[in-house]
Amino acid sequence: DNLSNLLNQYNYLNSLVNLASTPSAITGAIDNLSSSAINLTSATTTSPAYQAVALALNAAVGMWQVIAFGISCGPGPNLGTEHLENGGVRSFDNTPNYSYNTGSGTTTTTCNGASNVGPNGILSSSEYQVLNTAYQTIQTALNQNQGGGMPALNSSKNMVVNINQTFTRNPTTEYTYPDGNGNYYSGGSSIPIQLKISSVNDAENLLQQAATIINVLTTQNPHVNGGGGAWGFGGKTGNVMDIFGDSFNAINEMIKNAQAVLEKTKQLNANENTQITQPDNFNPYTSKDTQFAQEMLNRANAQAEILNLAKQVADNFHSIQGPIQQDLEECTAGSAGVINDNTYGSGCAFVKETLNSLEQHTAYYGNQVNQDRALSQTILNFKEALNTLGKDSTAINNGISHLPNA
């Protein structure tokens, strides 16, 4: 086994020494680094970096779609003289919800709860509005007929986010739900509010919106109506973090790693403005100008770091609770960015295809980057590589001489 490993090591290093002595091989490696950098920053379906950002984004917005019907919202017990406390009584259109009155899905959420707001209470109307604005921004971007989908990581598009809601003036004082599960406001006069928000469809903004969704839910930590039974957690009751804490922690890490991926791709994109030039008639045995190889190594390391971060996003996803992973994959609404009566309870995150693309292209570009990195290291440490080859050759010959019947 030792001799076999030594032979493999010798053959691998010898191939690198031969490549380091072949100008066309070096040119090919430089071209590979350039093309993979372009793919990471400018492509979509074949870019592991893009797929990592998409996975984090879809997991965050999908998580809200999965659990939204179990979260109540409203201004709480003290409306104030202007009926504006904690946002007042509001209704929001184009949202993922379920109506217990009709026994079916709905796209309207009415924030009229009069129970206490905050941790283990209801989500305040004002916090729901913050969350909904972030949600609508992402959904507008992902909807092919509105934002056209998230563009490549080095691209950006302007878009308008339409948000429809109503504010209720002079709502009637509190009532108690028939099941005794909290109080609510009724009646009053509704004032329609139509907002048109100028926004940007790019990875940076969308990831920030995703972070806002997760931040609202984890910091406000509202009570989950009926416990975790609807999601396969029959023994769990309490607030959002009591029931879904592992999933929220995983998605939060996904967003952080995706933001790191995006930042690294920006640096990579900037570096590509400077072309790597191989010296004429380069000979690793005699040439002292190896600065180009150092630049190759720097870019290979930068790409490897992006690929590792992209892999971490995928690993983070696997930490999401099993039943939630299944709900995120399900898409009863039909496609990303579409909100209809079937949206509630399903994430439309297209997890399987995104994960497959991410893992497949991470492996492909990872192998290529590792080869280019090994070649640049061999050029930079050429004398050491030759010395190692000599020592390995001697060790191999000694090993062969001690074999039976040698």
Descriptive labels:
406 residues; alpha+beta; four-stranded antiparallel sheet; single chain; two-stranded parallel sheet; elongated
Count of discrete domains: 1
- The value of Rg in angstroms is 28 Å
Spatial strand sequence of the major β-sheet: 5-2-7-10
Mean of all residue-level pLDDT scores? 92
Shape by Cα distribution: elongated
State the distance separating the first and last CA atoms.
17 Å
What's the count of strands?
10
The class by helix and strand makeup works out as alpha+beta
| Unreliable residue stretches | none
Helical stretch tally: 10
Strand content bin: 5-15%
Domain SabA N-terminal extracellular adhesion: 1-289
Pfam family, one: SabA_adhesion
Organism: Helicobacter pylori GAM100Ai
Protein name: SabA N-terminal extracellular adhesion domain-containing protein
What features would you describe in this structure?
The protein is α+β, with helices and mostly antiparallel strands and 406 residues long. It has one domain (2-401). It has ten helices and ten strands. The chain has helices spanning 2-20, 23-42, 48-67, 125-142, 203-220, 240-271, 291-317, 322-329, 351-380, 382-401, and strands spanning 73-74, 90-92, 97-99, 104-106, 109-111, 123-124, 157-169, 172-176, 183-186, 189-201. A four-stranded antiparallel β-sheet has the order 5-2-7-10. A two-stranded parallel sheet has the order 1-6. A hairpin with a 6-residue loop joins β8 (172-176) and β9. α2 (23-42) runs parallel beside α7 (291-317), α3 runs antiparallel to α9 (351-380) and α6 packs antiparallel against α7 (291-317). The radius of gyration is 28 Å and the shape is elongated. 42% of the residues are buried. The mean pLDDT is 92. InterPro entries: SabA_N_adhesion (IPR040838). Residues 1-289 form the SabA N-terminal extracellular adhesion domain. This is SabA N-terminal extracellular adhesion domain-containing protein. Pfam families: SabA_adhesion. It comes from Helicobacter pylori GAM100Ai.
